[in-house]
Structures are given as structure tokens and as C-alpha cells.
Write a structure and sequence with these properties.
Structural class: mainly alpha
Number of helices: 4
Radius of gyration: 15 Å
Shape: globular
Distance between the termini: 32 Å
Strand order of the largest sheet: 1-2
Strand content: 5-15%
Largest sheet: 2 strands, parallel
Oligomer: single chain
């Protein structure tokens, strides 16, 4: 059995291997799926993350929140 760290490394590498042309429609589909969820539609504020290193983009979610007048918060990490 592989460790959790090994699994993370494997999937991180797979994510990095995707081109932007492959990644963009997947990010769009994930964001559209979230936007159609009743819990998201009912929320009064959203907590998002800033995508990096090939992660799913949250830009469309942030834009939609702004359009709806929903406050968005981002976690902040300080070492």
C-alpha cells in the first residue's frame, strides 16, 4: 500500500502533466458542477482558494460570486 504522501505526489505529477488545453475544460466543468449545487446557491459567503501548480481554477467561481454580490474569502497561510 502506498503512503498518503506518495499518493499526493503521484496525483500532483499527473495534474502538472496536463496541458492548459486539457486543464481548462476540466476546471470549467468542476466549477459549473459546484455552481449547480443547491448548497452553493444558498450560501451567503464563499471560501475559495487561489489555484496554483495546475490545481482546478476557481476564477469562474470568484467572478460569479462578484456578479451575485456574494463575499468571497480566501484562506491565508503564514509560516
Amino acid at each position: 500500500m502506498t503512503s498518503k504522501a506518495e499518493q499526493r505526489g503521484h496525483w500532483r505529477a499527473r495534474r502538472r502533466d496536463l496541458s492548459e488545453a486539457e486543464r481548462a475544460p476540466r476546471s470549467a466543468a468542476a466549477q459549473a458542477s459546484l455552481l449547480s449545487h443547491p448548497g452553493v446557491a444558498a450560501a451567503h459567503r464563499w471560501l475559495l482558494y487561489r489555484a496554483y501548480d495546475g490545481e482546478v481554477s476557481t476564477a469562474a467561481l470568484a467572478a460569479e460570486a462578484q456578479r451575485r454580490g456574494i463575499p468571497v474569502r480566501y484562506p491565508r497561510w503564514t509560516p
